[in-house]
């Protein structure tokens, strides 16, 4: 941390800071300039936060220099991590396609979607049984019945399930069915939920809050990690800006930026960020060559009947092209879309 | 709702829409122009949402015309509402000051803060026992012990308590102690929590999400109202923008805008929006003359020792000036800061 | 400036920085911590910018500590400035109302608007002869003919004129007519224009860019000041955010924030920020008690016929109420709306 | 356009609108619903804008349905355009690399940069002689001397020149040297400049304003087109958001979105959007597979000595990899990087 003093700060003001820091077991280095004094602090930033130096006399600004996340940080863990879901490895050597319906509606629609996903090369099935919706009058998902449908479809297709959990009280129940627990964009800072998925014993797919900085997103991941769960897949899904042509603005730069800051895998959701079917293919291609470790897309056998986010769902004819693009660009990036089990077998 | 067709939409495309709408019991009015056709829909917008017209052939855009909120809407309920907390009326005739420490730390600090608040004219005591913090390493609040401290302070000062609840599973417990349940900015779209406070039998203070549009905020209030609880106080607390000089940007226009759209009372949090002590007084003044029904501010006997948000807390000497400004400008607005009980007594 | 080294920076990396800084005549103070080294630099920040330290080996981040503006900075000039326009003083002791039509359309409309403005207490007349419009098909203003109309109206009413100049090449011509040269939001970083108004010998009203940080806005003022013109009135007019209920989001906090950073007067434009007539009165009240040194509002005798921004223009019946609110709240703030000439006379 | 009436609008209010529209030669279609009336207007939107229907009695909202741009619109011109610069074709069949130093500093640095660019496959040389800088104390460019250096380098390398013009008054002079006139992000709504480049007889590279919606960007292009110049290359260069890890947020979705709305070519600037050298390669790859018609990047022989934006400039060793990626992904997209002259020759 760096403490910048006001131009009119006194020598006593500076000394008071140094004493407070040293009393807390830290070290303070004073740089005296023509116009002002800067004090560099060395030690544990959380302790310094508690010192509340900002409130002391003569202080102009306190600037944090190190990041606040540790367990998920690449500084602490140079090698990029792999999250294993059954036979599927999500990490630096693979590009994983996750696909499925935005919401589970019926057994038939879910099974058809899963077959579509599988034909396109998806290794995991996404599908929402609990849907957080802006309006209380919108379809809220089938709940446990939706989880049972997903489990049936998994039994038949072999695809592990990624599904959202919307409250800490539901984590145990959802974890009985899910292979990966998804935390949605509106819940990125639902801290009880983060702590609950941190102890649920299942990998977590953590979507970026649509209003969250990258640092806050990694801090949210740190909450999960601090509870003992490092199997976290980060998912960039667009941020809120003034632009209205798209639902949100996909922050494609976040992929390489996060991969430099954190060892966790990062995937991209091209369906929710753009909110338009015609953008899914170009954004998927962009995601892969930006280095994403996977993509998660909405599919639906009949989007015109979808109860949720129909306008962005891919249909069967889109999927062939999508699967082909993923194959080609994954190879271009020196990665593979084939999972470990197949590779071993091959 | 209005359906705008593409320039190349066929007559059959238009007819298909009209049929679908009429089959659902609605009405569709076709306006044929030189370049394109517009179809006006009359009826229930939720039904139309389920029709998924966006996905039909020839459709360029579907635009919602009416708002999606009803119970909290002023169209449905012309007169502005009053939320009653004990003897305190929050509504169009009063300006209510809510003050207290950001976090409950000790019995002494809470009692001192409450006394400060009361001397400044506060009618309600705010104080956090559960603190949602960006970092898992930051102070998370005292939990139930904090609630007990608040209850003790209430017993001694007579000030009703506003305190935050951070998860649906805690609502019953927090409601045992709280007079008003606060839903924080990060939880504005935590739908299980909204539903839980909707049935808890206590008034709710609903902070605007720092990334939420006014429409989304009112939809969040609608969730609570739909569960049977219309005792909702809306709280503008700043939105996230590119400006970095302040913690967030207080959207002062939101006060009159929301009051035209909704009958619910709207208060302002000048402490969290600016994040700076020196802004609390000017922003409080601005809030009152913009028409706010109250303000909620952080106070602390010794901000330099605060475990949370010290830089924005007011100290004793600030509060006299704040209380005076609130008195003066409340009178200017033709309102009163005196609660009902006192008025009756007076 | 502060240079933060990477955790793996070598001793040689650190020494290279120190040498480069000292060779440039500056001073570098090294703080060695457990995890990383911080180097505090003392001296002229522009020189350091040219050193391009960010590009040197081992550097993680270079953070600027002092602000880049000087001439407009309050650190350099503690007392708040007054800008004098004829007999009108804009500064800390007064609240000045500037009013007039968004665009000059006809002599009659301009004169009627000026009379309306004057009756409401306006001391300066605003009116656009050159209109920067998003669409090339929208009304672009009357040009020089508009300036002549403004000059005629000034001759008759005695109101000095504030009018916009949209390009450096027009400054000399517009300055022949204008008493205050306005630089609009879209031109806040039109640097040739800033330099031209900096030497035009007339006060400048500099609107904040709708996308500009406060620091960038003050840097734009610094451009004007550096050309020798310190008669600058800053005008907050709303920033662009994700909220769509208002045209822009009035950043009311900017008023006190800028007044702490700069000695220049700051006024508020409640018409363009909200874009709605019904918001002008509450936002004007908010501006004055937030400490604004004035407000600038759109008026029009018949807004339904306005060629530009009709929906936000005040009409005659609004103005009485507005003038009254300005009087009352100006007095409350311990200021006056009366100009120097009248005060001397009174 | 669609006029939505208030719930309490009278029959007379509706008739007044219909009459006004018909008097102006337009057509109005009335849709009466249970709660409110919607009026669809058919005809020319500019005329309707002048009618100022928003201000009429009973009107709740006026919504624009068609876009305001025409000449640059794809609705009017289905086939995507090619902009020809010498032998270089920028359009749907090619991916064009434009590279060079952010600022022209010396003949040597410019020549070295040009050689670097050329070796990497650049077909056009970028370089700034006039630099719009946030601070008046920062390096502002060499002016005409810089243009002369660029012309000399062109004579030696054969690379056509893209260079920025910052004011309308400079357009004629810059056009004497430039092959493509660049309008920078801060000048996207500098309307006199847009009009001046619209008649300068040279292709224009129009950067998106960092705060501009896609619609505003296309309206800015429409200004140029309306002056008779349709040789416009659009350049996405990042928008301003709350994220601070990158200089701006590259809006990668803008590439396909704009290509659906407009026939003009769209290129991407991965250097200025991210502001970090390590992001240039992944963002370039993303741009190409999102469908961009080219990329424009900063290079510098010695970024640590650059007078402008050194941290984002590529060096020689980066460029080989960049050129290779562009070749590979251009081929993947079924396009070519070879210009027409070479193709003819080949």
SSE map:
Four copies of one chain form a homotetramer.
Chain A: E1 2-5, H1 11-23, E2 27-32, E3 37-42, H2 45-51, E4 59-63, E5 83-85, E6 88-90, E7 96-100, H3 107-119, E8 124-126, H4 144-157, E9 161-164, H5 171-177, E10 180-183, H6 191-198, E11 204-207, H7 214-226, E12 232-236, H8 254-261, E13 266-268, H9 270-274, H10 277-289, E14 294-298, H11 316-332, H12 340-345
Parallel strand pairs in A: 7-8, 7-14, 8-9, 9-10, 10-11, 11-12, 12-13
Antiparallel strand pairs in A: 1-3, 1-4, 2-3, 5-6
Helix pairs in contact in A: 3-4, 6-7, 10-11
Description:
The structure is a homotetramer. Chain A is built from twelve helices and 14 strands. Chain A folds into two domains: about 1-65, Phospho-2-dehydro-3-deoxyheptonate aldolase, domain 1 (Alpha-Beta Plaits); about 85-340, Alpha-Beta Barrel (TIM Barrel). Helices cover about 35% and strands about 15% of the residues of chain A. In chain A, the strands form three sheets. Chain A has an eight-stranded parallel beta sheet with strand order 13-12-11-10-9-8-7-14. A four-stranded antiparallel beta sheet of chain A has the order 2-3-1-4, with helices on one face. A two-stranded antiparallel ribbon of chain A has the order 5-6. Chain A starts with a strand and ends with a helix. By secondary structure, chain A is an alpha/beta fold. The longest helix of chain A has 17 residues, at about 315-330. Chains in contact: A-B, A-C, A-D, B-C, B-D, C-D. The interface of B and D includes residues 32, 38, 63 and 244 of B.
């Amino acid at each position: 941390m760096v403490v910048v003093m006001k131009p009119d700060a006194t020598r006593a003001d500076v000394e008071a800071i140094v004493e407070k820091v040293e009393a807390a077991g830290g070290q303070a280095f004073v740089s005296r300039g023509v116009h002002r004094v800067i004090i560099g602090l060395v030690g544990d930033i959380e302790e310094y936060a508690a010192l509340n130096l900002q409130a002391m006399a003569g202080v102009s600004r306190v600037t944090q220099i190190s990041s606040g996340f540790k367990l998920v940080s690449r500084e602490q863990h140079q090698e990029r991590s792999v999250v294993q879901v059954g036979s599927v490895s999500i990490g630096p050597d693979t590009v994983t396609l996750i696909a499925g319906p935005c919401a589970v509606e019926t057994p038939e629609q879910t099974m058809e979607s899963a077959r579509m996903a599988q034909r396109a090369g998806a290794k995991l099935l996404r599908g929402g049984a609990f849907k957080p919706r802006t309006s209380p009058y919108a379809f809220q998902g089938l709940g446990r019945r939706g989880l049972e449908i997903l489990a049936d479809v998994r039994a038949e297709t072999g695809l592990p399930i990624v599904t959202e959990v919307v409250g800490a009280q539901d984590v145990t129940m959802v974890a009985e069915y899910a292979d990966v627990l998804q935390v949605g964009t509106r819940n990125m800072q639902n801290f009880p939920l983060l702590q609950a998925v941190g102890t649920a014993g299942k990998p977590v797919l953590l979507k970026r809050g649509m209003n969250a900085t990258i640092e806050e997103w990694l801090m949210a991941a740190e909450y999960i990690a601090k509870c003992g769960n490092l199997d976290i897949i980060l998912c960039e899904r667009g941020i809120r800006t003034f632009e209205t042509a798209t639902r949100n603005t996909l922050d494609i730069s976040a992929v390489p930026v996060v991969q430099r800051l954190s060892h966790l895998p990062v995937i991209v959701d091209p369906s929710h960020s753009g909110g338009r079917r015609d953008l899914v293919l170009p954004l998927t291609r962009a995601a892969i060559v930006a280095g994403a470790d996977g993509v998660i897309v909405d599919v639906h056998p009949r989007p015109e009947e979808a109860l949720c986010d129909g306008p962005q769902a891919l249909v069967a004819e889109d999927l062939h092209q999508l699967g082909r693009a993923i194959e080609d660009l994954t190879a271009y990036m020196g990665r593979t879309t084939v999972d470990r089990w197949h590779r071993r077998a091959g």
